[in-house]
Amino acid sequence: MRAPSITSRRLALASRRSRWAVVAITGAVLALLASAQRLATFYTDFLWYRALGFGSVWSKTLGVELGLGATFTLLLGALLWCNLWLADRHLAGIYNPATAGATDQLVSRWQRAVGANGPWVRLVVVCVFAVVGGTTAHTQWPNWLLFSNAKTFPGKTDPIFQLNYGFYVFRLPFLQWLTGWLLS
């Protein structure tokens, strides 16, 4: 049997790199195709608002959407990271892989697979879930604008809770969404 030559090793390395390049390019093309409709809507809205002279309305809407998405993504990321940190700290003294039973084999295999990369794995998991869960907030921009610019209806109060009707019109929709987001 002949020893592999340096040339064949370089070809193997080059083919491995080219495979990763093909995978990356394919992923980028698929991501572009998947977001093409959203990008077209985004650009069309931009042109329409600008043509009507309401470019500031479009930029304000975009700023509120991005702000809500970023705020709730960071908030969810912090909550998830704290939960994982507390769970890891709490279980560090309790869980012993040597005395783990048959039901804990999955946990033991996971810990062996992750090893010293545990904090990085947790960071990736937190980032993925935070982006998925936090970016849903951008759809609530109309309710946020109503909430943040709430007014009252003079002389109009609810006979049961003694709240002004403005609370139900301006504040309650966002508070209901916020409650649902926190509980889900």
What does this structure look like?
Helix 6 (141-148) packs across helix 7. The protein is mainly alpha-helical. The protein has helices at 6-34, 36-51, 55-92, 105-114, 118-134, 141-148, 165-183. It is flat. It starts with 5 loop residues before the first helix and ends with a helix.
Kindly estimate the percentage of residues that lie in beta strands according to DSSP: under 5%
List low-pLDDT spans.
Answer: none
Query: How many β strands by DSSP?
Result: 0
Calculate Rg over CA atoms. 26 Å
Individual helix count: 7
Say what oligomer this is.
single chain
Classify the helix fraction into a percent range: over 70%
- Overall shape: flat
Distance between the termini: 62 Å
Largest sheet: none
List the main descriptive attributes of the protein structure presented here:
single chain; 184 residues; mainly alpha; 7 helices; 74% helix
Concise account of the structure shown:
The chain has seven helices and no strands.
Annotate the secondary structure layout.
Elements: H1 6-34, H2 36-51, H3 55-92, H4 105-114, H5 118-134, H6 141-148, H7 165-183
